[in-house]
Design brief:
Blueprint: E1 2-3, E2 7-11, E3 17-22, E4 25-28, E5 33-36, H1 40-57, E6 64-69, E7 72-76, E8 78-80, E9 83-90, H2 94-98, E10 108-118, E11 121-123, E12 132-134, H3 136-143, E13 144-145, E14 148-149, E15 153-155, E16 158-162, E17 165-169, E18 182-184, H4 190-213, E19 216-217, E20 220-234, E21 240-243, E22 251-255, H5 266-269, H6 274-288
Antiparallel strand pairs: 1-2, 2-3, 3-7, 4-5, 6-7, 8-20, 9-10, 9-20, 11-12, 11-15, 13-14, 16-17, 17-18, 19-20, 20-21, 20-22
Helix pairs in contact: 1-6
Bound molecules: adenosine-5'-triphosphate and magnesium ion (MG).
Amino acid sequence: MVEGKTKQILEGPEPGTVVLLAKDRLTGGDAAKVAEIPGIGAWKTTQTANVFRLLANSGVPTAFIRQLDERSLLCADCEMVPVEYVVRRYGWGSYRARHPETPAVPTPFDELVVERFYKHALVLPPAVAEPEVLEESVARSKYLSNGRWAEGVHTDPYVQIRDDGWYLHSAKRPEPERDGGYRIEAPASDTADTTIVQEILLPAFRVIEDAWRDVTTEHGPVVLVDCKFEIGTRKSDGALVLSDVVDNDSWRIWAGGDPKRQLDKQRFRDGAPLPEVANAYKLVAELTSRFSAE
Ligand SMILES: Nc1ncnc2c1ncn2[C@@H]1O[C@H](COP(=O)(O)OP(=O)(O)OP(=O)(O)O)[C@@H](O)[C@H]1O
Ligand SMILES: [Mg+2]
């Protein structure tokens, strides 16, 4: 059993399966910000089930099997790739810190952008004398106090792929040219990475983007700005599949394409009152229920 920040992973009722049990909890800023919100685990579970049903119907390989109850999903047990993959139609959020030349007016990319963030903490001076990489839970206990990370600690560092490995950088600084960074062995081979991008991430994003575009609100269709995905190797057959969850924590969605009409977790990160955050999650659970009807 794994006790995560937002869910528990329990042994499943059938061999090779796990149960993802959602907590009534939101976290932001890599656990620097935490809130308990009754009902939110059920809304997030509905959202993931709706998204994964849509993806499965569209031929995207996923770990999802079925929803068991309000807060539980039955999924294939996977060996997780320790990477957060982000697919972007627009350059927003931390992308703009890495690419300061990005226009302030949201402008879609013709070609989707895929980025990778390593699911560990990169610890640099002044927190340590010699740079190191730590598991996030270890980094949390050492370097997170009173909702603040120590200077020099970079959670989910940005991955720059080079010929001789992956190089980690702070996600909040402009992307450097081909030097510097902390080298790690790539956790996915070039071949696996290509499969992940071409056969899972890009198709998944396009399917979800199209589904949101068909959802009309009073302000216009919903625009999918970006989305975070996790990939696993299914233990039963070794296949690479879309794993973890895709819920209202995973993406930016803007009603009518207006950044001020965000329906996603960004409201929470920005300090909106919790009842308003709860309403957004409930609304998004309802709106994603229109996905699977097609
Ligand atoms: N199908 C699956 N099989 C095995 N592990 C999974 C599966 N889906 C998700 N997980 C893993 O379960 C763990 C717990 O989930 P949770 O999202 O709550 O963790 P977390 O504290 O946010 O940590 P993380 O930063 O790794 O996501 C995560 O590490 C996630 O990658
Ligand atoms: Mg997680």
